[in-house]
Amino acid sequence: MQPDFIYPGGKLLQSIPNDPQFGQQWALNNTGQSLQTGSPFSMYGDAATVNGIPDSDMDVTEAWDITTGSPAIKIGIIDSGIDSAHADLQAPGHLLPGYDAFTNTNGSSVDYFNHGTSVAGIIGAVMNNGTGIAGIAPGCRMMSICIFDINGTSSTSIITRAFDSAVARGMDVLSNSWGGGLPEPAVTDAVNNAAINGRGGLGCAIFFASGNDGSNPPIYPSVLPNVLSVGGSTPHDQKKAPGTGNQFYWGSNYGEDASGDLDLIAPTNCYTLAINGYEENFWGTSATCPNAAGVAALVLSANQSQSRQTVYSNILRGCDKPDNVPYNVTKAYGKWNMYYGYGRVNAYKSVSLALGNDHVAPTINHTNVGSHSSTYPTLVTAEITDHDGTSVPKIGSISPKIHYKTKKSTAGWSAFDSSDAYQSIGQVFYFRIPSLGWDSEVQYFIRAYDNLGNKSEFPLHAPASMNLCFFAVGNITSETKKVPAFSGVDYGATVSPAINFNAFKIVDAKLNIYMRHTYLDDEMFQIYSPLTDPNNNRKCLFSGNGGSMDNITGASVSDSANLFWKDGQPPYLNGSYKPEFTLRGLRGENAGGAWRVLHFDGAIGDYAFFDSVKITLYKTSGAKSPAARLNTSADSTLLFDNSAFPGIYDKDFYLKNAGTASLALSSFNFSGQQSSMYSLLNTPPSTIAAGDSALFRVRLNTAVGSTAVSQAILNITTNDPSKPAFKVSMLTNDSLRTGLRNLQLTALIQGLYNPVTNTSRQDTINVYLRRFTSPYSIVDSARGFLSTAGTGSFSFRNTQTGVSYFIVVAHRNALETWSSVPLVFSGIQASYNFTTSASAAYGNNQVLSGTKYCIYSGDIDDDRSIDGADVSLADNAANNYSGGYLPQDIDGNGFVDATDVEITHNNSQEFITTIRP
Questions:
Q1: Residue 842 reports pLDDT greater than 50
Q2: Which of 442, 656, 710, 839 qualifies as a cystine partner to 629, CB 3.0-4.6 A?
Q3: Phi, then psi, of 199 in degrees rounded to 5
Q4: In terms of Cα–Cα distance, which of 290, 27, 31 is closest to 173?
Q5: DSSP 3-state assignment of 158?
Q6: Cβ of 784: how many Cβ atoms within 10 Å?
Q7: Is 657 helix (H, G, I), strand (E, B) or coil?
Q8: Domain 363-474 maps to which CATH number in 2.60.40.10, 3.40.50.10420, 2.60.120.200, 3.90.740.10?
Q9: What is the distance between the alpha carbons of residues 255 and 217, in angstroms, rounded to a whole number?
Q10: Does 363-474 match 741-909 in CATH topology?
């Protein structure tokens, strides 16, 4: 078994040590300092020096304010040995006598090929000795357990002996910067024995490098269930993939398969020790593994009674969650992502958890909204949970918020604005970014707090410009160009001929590949963009997949694919696969300039021939459009809230153009059963300039009819590409009129009711009175609106005193619901309340929402059942970004979205139908 990495060629006090090279240890404290990358390959896009994103580190200095490690905690470094004479390892009792499992001898004190010393330096270089660097856990003790000879070879029996010896010598933490090959049952057994029976039955905390192939999944033994697999992170908190971290030639393994998965990432390319000196750029997952193991030593130092499982829980739940990727998989220790596992290790948060103190911010699981052509508000959803699964505050100053800024056409970026979620269901929050016209761009992030005030942003490090979500609104088009055919050198790098795109903002990317190679496991290639930022200009498309098999034939690569390369098989004929690292970083960037393919062949003997690489970049066409504002229901309703029969009332409605071009108004009229009661008092303009609004002065004359109820719509014909027919609902209240019997009704519609605020959106309903005996014929009906409290007044002229009636409530998308007991007028007034008990409805046919009973929502087609047909209607409307006063708008917010679909779907699953006598 070969080592995985042997290169052949601002919180609290933040303790800062006096070690002179501590400033280069960005993994412990990243201030954005200048760092040497160690790469000489500027011709392939690597920068010689970079400045990272501040706080893209493990918060070790903050953890040091709690503990720098306990000598009771012993760390076994299973590797190539340790240079025990190194000046930066000299402290009484700091290095325990070593063991050479290769020769089965005690007292080993040498490093056979300058690898284990570098690992040991990251974990335990002596702190505050005025020399070199500081280790993560300098107060702990370390022991060298050597499993390699000078040639880097080992065997199953040697590795097995190493783990057995680690258990016998009482090791608490085991760091393993090696791996690869096929599973060995004897090795698996030895590892599991240490994990389960080490530390007197508490179990050793065991860490393995995930691998340096840049592919999915991690290598053995890191996938074993009782160990933690550690991938890599960069000074910019990116997953270390080929093309990130300014070392284009390698990436850490990620993902999962049936054997196991990536658990977390940790910094790589670190300043550490070397034999008789220092290594400025110790890279690979050989560096990531000791970073995580050193944090584990601090966690155990804080609380030595923890079991292995508790240590893992505290480390994984304490991770920060970097990058613009969804953490959408729920696993044992919280939210998980294929590229990042549970996230990047954070020493301060994990040590705090070990002491019972919670400084872990909630997880925001969100998928960046795609660019689109709809001028309706853009709906943004996010699942937000605390690390222990509890809910975050839904109201108040620390409730989740979306922060966004916009750029309209050639104007500059606006300042950030923010808004609360307009709705939450369980732990899913729904936000809205206002209506925009075509040729608009948006950058946004989401901020949330837990109940203790711990704060998180998605993406992490927002609002730094590299860490914002992006989408555009416009006429989406694409441009495709083909990279000229080229051959890749054997064992080395090749840059393809260039093709050039004109300048435009990228909204998404997709690539199509025809490539011949007779041993795909050697192959790695990236898209090399003209972006000047070396931390964002290369995206790895393929790395080390396919084993000894041949060729890629017509496969496409995009973020929207459902499969990873591991899920397919060469030649991947016309398949669609995810890249080895997300392409989202290209969104919002300028396409202008030369695009190339960067190829790297990792072994001698096979060549790559790229017959065709087609690059498709998506963009908006540049066309502008108006956008009739429809951000809330108030933008499409006009409420005559003090009207009564008879009377004349005037109200003003303003139609706002939130777009980038003039909004043309070609016609307007009233329609609906009571349209004759409404008229326009002014002549609105024929066009509304972008950013301006137009006045519609509406008169309600109740004397024209014989009632004061609504049921009328103002129809405005526009040139808005999404809202050619803009509809404004006329709403009124219906006062008690002389000579009529009046019903004071209390009822709540499920979709309109918010149990958190105990309020409802106002909307109109029809109320029918039916005979209480068969055939239950309709006696009278009334139409009116329910208030935010769910109350309404409904007047009837055909009722009689002392006669029993069924009350039947009908709403545009709610289930027809009958009362369970008779309504009897003893005078001119009566009341009925559906909300206090399920039994208030016939057949108990209501749903409990909070403390109130509500009428079921979702009968969109009004066939007295909520079924798949209703779900289909809601789903189609949501996919088309439909808005306005529609039956598919279950929650009454003016837009059809995932919330409406979810409510309808859930009720359809329960086979909800009208129950009547």
A1: yes
A2: 656
A3: 55, 40
A4: 290
A5: helix
A6: 25
A7: strand
A8: 2.60.40.10
A9: 5
A10: yes
- pLDDT of 704 reads 67
pLDDT digits over 26-44, tens only?
999 999 999 999 999 999 9
Neighbouring-strand partners of residue 213: 251
- The token duo for 401 is 């918020």
pLDDT digits (tens, 9 = 90+) for 96-114: 999 999 999 998 788 988 9
Burial 47-72 (b: 16+ CB within 10 A, else e): beebbbbbbbbbbbbbbbebbbbbee
Q: What is the pLDDT of residue 14?
A: 56
Mean pLDDT along residues 651-674: 95
CATH architecture of the domain 633-732 equals Sandwich (2.60)
Contacts of 868-872 with C-beta under 8 Å, sequence gap 24+, read 868/908, 870/904, 870/908, 871/901, 871/904, 871/905, 871/908
The answer, yes or no, to whether residue 611 has pLDDT greater than 50, is yes
Reply yes or no on whether the pLDDT at 643 is more than 80.
no
Residue 443: CB atoms within 10 Å? 21
For residues 583-610, b (16+ Cβ closer than 10 Å) or e, as one string? bbbbbbbbbeeebbbbbbbbeeebbbeb
Question: Are 579 and 467 within 8 A, CB to CB?
Answer: no
Task: Say which DSSP state 363 is in.
Answer: E
pLDDT tens-digit map of 216-273:
999 999 999 999 999 999 999 999 999 999 999 999 999 999 999 999 999 999 999 9
The mean pLDDT of 2-19, rounded to a whole number, is 52
Phi, psi of 687 (to 5 degrees): -140, 150
Residue 66 three-state SS: coil
Neighbours of 726 (CB within 10 A): 23
Range in 104-113, 401-410, 604-613 with the lowest mean pLDDT: 104-113
d(CA 722, CA 372): 11
H helices of 318-414, where? 347-354
For the chain, report the end-to-end CA distance as a whole number of angstroms. 76
The CATH-assigned architecture of domain 22-354 is 3-Layer(aba) Sandwich (3.40)
- One-letter-per-residue 3-state SS of 552-578: EEEEEECCCCCECHHHCCCCCCCCEEC
Q: Which of 67-81, 612-626, 671-685, 715-729 has the lowest mean pLDDT?
A: 671-685
Query: Is 567 exposed, middle or buried, given 0-12, 13-18 or 19+ CB atoms closer than 10 A?
Result: middle
The domain ranges of the chain are: 22-354, 363-474, 477-620, 633-732, 741-909
Distance CA 601, CA 4 (A): 18
Here the tokens at position 836 are: 């206090």
Asked whether the whole model's pTM tops 0.85, one would answer no
Q: Which CATH class, in words, describes the domain spanning 477-620?
A: mainly beta
Confidence of residue 829 (pLDDT cuts 50, 70, 90): confident
Per-residue pLDDT tens over the stretch 758-774: 999 988 899 999 999 88
